[in-house]
Design goal:
mainly alpha, single chain
Length: 78
Amino acid sequence: MFGIGTTELIIILVIILIIFGVGKLPSIGTGIGQAIRNFKKASSEEEIDVTPEKEKLESTADTKSATTTKPEEPSKKV
């Protein structure tokens, strides 16, 4: 697994246990689980629209005004 043996994995887990303590491990596990779940959910969705509402309103107003205005007729020179 990524070139990490059993001994190295145990050493890493012991260091994490020393740093965070026994009380924090369940909350850390819960946070990591939620992050993975949210990532899977976001990656399975087709497309996410991240345009702010203000820009959405401006762009719809611009397209409406462009379609409702009549183009100017060219001026005739005599």
